[in-house]
Amino acid sequence: MLTERGCLERRKRLWKALPDDCEWVLIADPRHVLYFANFLVNPISFSTSERGLLLLERSGKATLIAENFTRRTASAEPFVDDEIGNDVDDKWYDHKHSMQNRDHALFDRLSRVADRIKGPGLVEAEWLPAMAAARLGLGSDALSGDVGSVVRKLRRQKHADEIALLEKCMRACEVGHARALEVAAEDVSELDIYREIQSAAIAEAGCPAIVYGDFRPVNAEIPKRGGLPTPQKLKAGDMLIVDYSVVLSGYRSDFTNTIAIGEMTAEQEKLFSVCEGAMAAGESVFKVGAAAKDVYHAASAVMEEAGFEPLAHHAGHGLGLGHPESPALVPESEDTLLVGDVVTLEPGMYVKGVGGVRIEHNYLITESGYRRLSNHRIALR
Questions:
Q1: How far is CA 54 from CA 16, 81, 123, 161, 346, in A?
Q2: How many Cβ atoms from other residues are within 10 Å of residue 182's Cβ?
Q3: Beta-carbon contacts of residue 150 (< 8 Å; ≥ 6 apart)
Q4: Per residue in 291-335, pLDDT tens?
Q5: CATH T-level fold of 160-372
Q6: What's the rounded mean pLDDT across residues 113-126?
Q7: What is the domain partition of the chain in residue ranges?
Q8: Closest to 54 (Cα-Cα) out of 118, 120, 116, 146
């Protein structure tokens, strides 16, 4: 979980990034309500897809707005000074009366802070519905600031509590990868392997979690595909690409291995070896201020020097509350690496008549270079 200290530090950075005359900001993106206040509706609950809103005031006060059923499905206690909508006598649903439109219930409660947002302020307009803005009587000035982009830039540089949560995701993901190497074999279905991965990851996490990604085999005939698992059974010559994330409290891991089913050809083993070389080349570029495109070109150059096509997708991407997010490790990227970036590095090769391979690790960019966050075993078998 995020910490109170981390949430307060992130709010402090937000105020430094906003105009000096801004006295309040209304946060509407559920990920950003989590980022600043540790409030997230548990996605594995009856209130999944519902949301709360967060009013931050330059004075330091933080107010959570959420109707009672949404509030009770929070993943953890929020770090706020005030709450609107969670009083005993202020229920959206009380098991006695008919239910009001749930969105309207949220906006009704939002209107109760209208008297506190009369001065200069900004709204995260990307996520605030027009009805909510109308209820508050907000003018164009409040809606004109690009709050969402400001927060997304802040999100790149992770705080200690975020890194700790990401590492918890990594530990669960590693255990799932180890289990995949144990159970992947001929005549075992993609779905059964996924179930084993999911079970192992959740056991390690010690709590319910979301496990999503690619759990599909490729081969000489179909060298590239992805997606959730099917009942299809693996066969000799398949190369099972296991590329997945474990999501805990809104944050996620994302790393990959390719598992050989049966004997591999020399050409398939060469793809794996080249990908390992491309990963090492990409790592060699990791440092503060490095151009993201240089990471891509370093990884791709290894493939090209071995006689293959350039890397066909990104060499990696940022990771955290979103997937993917900045920085983008692509050939025309304008991003540079920052201290606190958490990034993936995932070289992949897919050759018709041979097969496909993708491997991936996760990294934290530090003052002195980088620290690898994922420690799963990358191996064909």
A1: 18, 11, 10, 20, 36
A2: 11
A3: 14, 17, 18
A4: 999 999 999 999 999 999 999 999 999 999 999 999 999 999 999
A5: Creatine Amidinohydrolase (3.90.230)
A6: 88
A7: 4-155, 160-372
A8: 116
Please report which confidence band the pLDDT of residue 89 belongs to, taking 50, 70 and 90 as the band edges: low
pLDDT band at 203 (very low <50, low <70, confident <90, very high): very high
> Is the per-residue pLDDT at 196 higher than 90?
yes
Q: Is the fold of 4-155 the same as that of 160-372?
A: no
What pLDDT, on a 0 to 100 scale, did the predictor assign at position 90?
77
pLDDT band at 66 (very low <50, low <70, confident <90, very high): very high
Which tokens belong to 58? 């330059």
Joined together, the tokens standing for residue 110 give 């939002």
Q: How far apart are CA 229 and CA 115, in angstroms?
A: 51
Of 109-113, 306-310, 368-372, where does mean pLDDT reach its minimum?
109-113
Q: Is the pLDDT of residue 143 over 90?
A: no
CB 346 within 8 A of CB 296: no
Asked if 377 contacts 365 with a C-beta cutoff of 8 angstroms, the reply is no
Name 149's Cβ contacts closer than 8 Å, sequence gap at least 6.
none
Q: Which CATH code of 3.40.350.10, 3.40.50.920, 3.90.550.10, 3.40.190.10 fits the domain covering 4-155?
A: 3.40.350.10
